[in-house]
């Protein structure tokens, strides 16, 4: 290597090692000519790459075995090593800077590397900047999310959102995360939406009928619905997903969600009205799909002037079947929710209540039955033979007593505060079938 020694041009302060000196065009041209030679690739290649990983370093480590022999020899010659080293070595960048300034290049390390092959990249600094930018974007997204109408409509979801943030369940990419959160909260903002179908909901809110079939948005919404339901149950499995959507009034389709009725008629016209009237006249149970109900309600709401004045609601299909066999067309209107009400059942009950129909609900005297009763009575139905005295009468008529285990969480019965305590003391469930004669008597009288 040929160098032209000139008096030292000072040296870079350690805190400004990565700041290149200002050079005129002649100096830049000279540096490019010299450092463009193969013997300097150890500097423009290996040293530069090692330093760019973090420009705050004051030394770099190089694996000499990775360098061609010619480059390793040229480096040893310039650094005035007494012998050629092997293995991994540490090079002081401050010392290297001073040697370059004292050489014929007459420029510091940062200036030489910048002149030869462009500005230095600070990869570590860029990573820090990227991390700070992501943190800022995340903070902004959080502020937007907590102020979203979906959270304002369901304030308890603020804790769910914090859990999502803490566990990192949302996509890591900020842009993707923003889209997922925005879409999920947009869906939650319109829920519950009794009687809607999943495809209709997705099309209305997200502009794509299949946007909630699968993927991170659907998963986020289901986790939120699970949080609203019990804060701990999972969201996996077809049955669980169907249950969670149903809790928000959403059916996965319009044909599998149905409601079972006996003696119920609706005013107006159309296939649902005709079918219900024919079955009621014959005393035969009928099953309405969500699609049939929506078709009817889209055509005409139930006019309050022609509403069904009263209807009874039961929990179990076996009860409705027994009523149909015993009373037939002589039974008052009876709707069966078949356990936890389906989306179709919820929609029908809501429309009847809105039209002014008095609904009276009866179910099993067990914890699941009480949960169903609380939800329906809370929505506007009246209790039907669901008092403490009714429970005690059922105990005496219950031939084969069914053990009632302690509930997983405290149970309340607002319509009769003493009922839950009485059931806890007796620890016996009373199913609807045990009091069927009382129910038959009420339904027979309701038709008169």
Features:
448 residues, alpha/beta, Dna Topoisomerase Vi A Subunit, Chain: A, domain 2, 3 domains, six-stranded mixed beta sheet, two-stranded antiparallel sheet, 20 helices, 12 strands, 51% helix, elongated
Protein architecture, described:
With 448 residues, this protein is of the alpha/beta class. The chain has three domains: 14-121, no CATH class; 128-248; 258-447, Dna Topoisomerase Vi A Subunit, Chain: A, domain 2. It has 20 helices and twelve strands. Strands 6-5-8-7-9-10 form a six-stranded mixed beta sheet, with helices on both faces. Helix 15 packs across helix 20 (436-447). The longest helix is centred in the first third of the chain and has 24 residues, at 123-146.
List the topology elements.
Blueprint: H1 25-35, H2 41-52, E1 59-63, H3 69-78, E2 88-92, H4 93-102, H5 109-117, H6 123-146, H7 149-153, H8 157-167, H9 174-189, E3 196-197, H10 198-206, H11 216-229, H12 238-247, E4 250-251, E5 258-262, H13 271-282, E6 286-289, H14 290-299, E7 310-314, H15 317-327, E8 334-336, H16 343-354, E9 358-361, H17 367-379, E10 382-383, H18 388-397, E11 402-403, H19 418-426, E12 428-429, H20 436-447
Parallel strand pairs: 3-4, 7-8, 7-9, 9-10
Antiparallel strand pairs: 1-2, 5-6, 5-8, 11-12
